[in-house]
Design brief:
elongated; transposition; DNA recombination; single chain; Transposase_mutator; transposable element
Amino acid sequence: MTDVVTAGADTGQVVKRKPGRPDVDGVDGELVARLVEQARTAGLQLTGEGGLLQQLTKRVLESALEGEITDPLGYDKGDPAGKNGGNSRNGVRGKTVLTEVGPVDVEVPRDRDGRFEPQIVRKCQRRLSGVEDMVISLSAKGLTTGEIQAHLAEVYGADVSRQTISTITDKVVEAMTEWQNRPLDPVYPVIFLDAIHVKIRDGKVANRPIYIALAVTVEGTRDILGLWAGDGGEGAKFWLQVLTEVKNRGVADACMVVCDGLKGLPEAIETTWPLAVVQTCVIHLLRNSFRYAGRQHWDGIARALRPVYTAPTEASAKERFAEFADAWGGRYPAIVRLWDKAWPEFVPFLTFDAEIRTVVCSTNAIESVNARIRRAVRARGHFPNEAAALKCVYLAVMSLDPTGQGRRRWTMRWKPALNAFEMTFEGRLSAGRK
């Protein structure tokens, strides 16, 4: 391999470096290469206990701490200027810090007056922030405290108690409270409402609903408005409390609200936003229909109902539903009654353009969020209390799109629909852009 020769700008010194080994972010690539080579020659592992990364972390931390204490004292370590100059160095104290490369023993310098407050490794601090981020990330993926404890012990050789792990994740509660009470946009084109159930051990293990409101902004981004823990089965009365809170946080209008067929929910939505169009989720309506039918007839019922919700107009949908009632009403009259009752909230999407129809006919937009939440919840089994359940769900929600790719896909998918919303709900979306 041919060396690349460059000249130093200030000294004129000729510097040789290997192609493909440029300095990155100020890190000397050749120095790193020499350190790795020395470690291999000495038989030193790069990772693991006593490995090169641990030793480097120790050196870097201690060097940074020495730099921190030099500033307030006004002299370097070993400098005679520090003698008889008032406050001075007073040895070191040892402590073990948990880092992303495992436990590292560091020597923290002290001063005689006890005024030195290190910032890189603070007093009483036993973990660097990267470790706390790792614990929160693992918790968001659904790992229990025991599983996180085992992971840290196996991968990093770190003995971290379950209580410590729980304490780390508890730090998100303050952020969750701030997020839950943040101001919202004045108007949203669509708001999706749904609830999932979690098991909470409150005297006895019981299913409790977690209410979720997800909105599409006027820019086409996804915005989860909040999470609320209910005190029993899912009910329209509690939804009214949720919607009232959302309105009080600044949401003056919503063009459409998509929800399941819960009794009383359309009235709660109308009370909150009188101009909102309420759309019952077609998927929920189909699932509820199957509850009244034998398993052997599900496929036939699904085929017979498909022309109803894919009809080009409401009049055509009525004709197709009449055909369904003639074919299946005698065997399953409860399904016919179900659709008749839900008809006013089922048909609104049929009056819109295809761009709007495809995104508001169901709560599929929120199902991907629910799937991530359920995965985290299933890993826990059940929760000791409501706060623990909400913390788990919040962490799962905050880790939905770590790369930002989902946000871009979401925006591209909603762009055609939002253009149609502009024409259909003329003037109502402009308030969201002020």
